[in-house]
Amino acid sequence: MSDWVEACAADDIDEEDVMRFDHGGRTFAVYRSPDDEYFATDGLCTHEKVHLADGLVMDDVIECPKHNGRFNYKTGAARGAPACVNLKTYPVKVDAGKVLVQIG
Amino acid sequence: MTEMARGMIIIGAGECGGRAALTLRDLGYGGPVTLVGDEPHPPYERPPLSKEAMAGDAPEIKAIASDAMLAEKSIRHIHSVQAVAIDRAAHNVRLSNGSVLPYDKLLLATGSTPRKLPMPGLGARCVYLRTLADALAIRGHLSAGNRIAVIGGGFIGLELAAASRKLGALVTVIEAQPRILMRGVPAEIAEIIHQAHVTEGVDILCGDGIASIADDGRQVRVTLAGGREITADLAIIGIGAVPVTGLAAEAGLAIDNGVAVDTELRSSDPDIFAAGDCCSFPLAVYGGRRVRLEAWRNAQEQGALAAKNMLGAGEAHAAVPWFWSDQYGLTLQIAGLSDEGKSTVRRDLGDGAFILFHLAEDGRLVAASGIGPGNAVARDIRLAEMLIGKQAKPAPEALGSQAVKLKSLLAA
């Protein structure tokens, strides 16, 4: 139910960047913040189901590549039009150089 | 507060007007907000009308603000009416249903309307696309084997051509210019889009003007100057758009390729603002060059900014123009206006995706045009947009090298 799943190696993601991670028919986005912490959210924008991992990370914000909907990837909060529905977030931990996501 | 009791009126309930109304409330404005629109729907997103809304069986309306949301925010939406006159001295607007609404501040978000083909012979089978009603009418003709003539090789026409092919219709695109997308798109990128259409079976005819059109109500015959004849079940005309300025002009407001506004989106009357497709404004990033944009994000940003400034923020519009188009699996994105550039640098991103950076004579990055599968160019175009906004002068070698991250140039 709430298994920790290995998403990638910690080094696979640059600082202030994002990577797509698919598991069990679902898609997620895994982030590495500028202060070297890891986060995970649902992988698709809540506006039009676009993969957020193609978007740009600036500080704690991910911007959708399609229509610039913005979210705080640490909290999932939508940060402006056209995105108005928050993103779901997931717990993340780094263990032995691996990024693990708790998929609830 | 009594002097603000008349409230805010927004004419035009599209992307721009809808965003403006919502922003007034988001900023805490408590007076009356009235949104006047000539369509029966609450504000909805227009971009899908030429794209994915055409692909499904029934175009799905994507609301910017539902009736319920408007009601919850106490935004009065008067639909299916036209604003017919502004009395600037009395500060009121008269509507086609006879009512007269007083305002403290007025926003014109009247948008644009398809440019009409100035030619005799057009009839029931010659159509334009602007509204959901137009989209539904067009969708009814896009069935397998039906013949569609698209007049105009611009974005609306090409997106509709792509949607028509997906549904199995037979498509001919007619463009009088020597190539498609002459306005604002570099030839190198237009060529990729041209090839994608040809691969999908679209017949593209460039460089030949239309001599005559005959529409008998069941089919259309288009005769080109060169003698070629195209017979279609439907002709979709997409030859650009013109700003809707009649109301503003009648009220004596300054017009210059749209309602002329200043950097704060204020018209020649300090209590009347204009935003989105209907206005021309000075673009700070190009030294105040006056432009008019027909773009979704501009409508959104200017709607929000106009709302702020109606409340007295005094904030200048500082955004860089940004635009996108989807055709088949390709997405094109353009930041800035490429005609500001004197030279270009190409950056390849893999999978056939690439970006052309447009540099001014003094080395400033003024625009970036990218194309590729899916969202391959999105991230770098976004970074380019920020560099353009900063009026950065990045080294051409850095822009052209995949090894140099664009993000690293932002910090410089």
How would you describe this structure to a colleague?
- The complex is a heterodimer of chains A (104) and B (412).
- Chain A has 104 residues and is an all-beta fold.
- Chain A has no helices and 10 strands.
- In chain A, the strands form 3 sheets. A 4-stranded antiparallel beta sheet of chain A has the order 2-3-4-8, with no helix packed on it.
- Chain A is globular.
- Chain B folds into 3 domains: 182 residues, FAD/NAD(P)-binding domain; 122 residues, 3-Layer(bba) Sandwich (FAD/NAD(P)-binding domain), CATH 3.50.50.60; 83 residues, Enolase-like, domain 1 (2-Layer Sandwich), CATH 3.30.390.30.
- Chain B contains 11 helices and 26 strands.
- Classes of the chains: A mainly beta (104), B alpha/beta (412).
- Chains A and B meet through loops of A and helix 8 and helix 9 of B.
Gist of the model:
The complex is a heterodimer of chains A (104) and B (412). Chain A has 104 residues and is an all-beta fold.
Quick check: average pLDDT of chain B?
Answer: 95
Output the number of helix runs of chain B: 11
Q: What's the helix-strand series of chain A?
A: EEEEEEEEEE
CATH fold name of the largest domain in chain B, please? FAD/NAD(P)-binding domain
The CATH top-level class label of chain A: Mainly Beta
What brief labels describe this structure?
heterodimer; A: mainly beta; Rieske Iron-sulfur Protein; four-stranded antiparallel sheet; three-stranded antiparallel sheet; 45% strand; B: 412 residues; alpha/beta; FAD/NAD(P)-binding domain; Enolase-like, domain 1; 3 domains; five-stranded parallel sheet; 24% helix
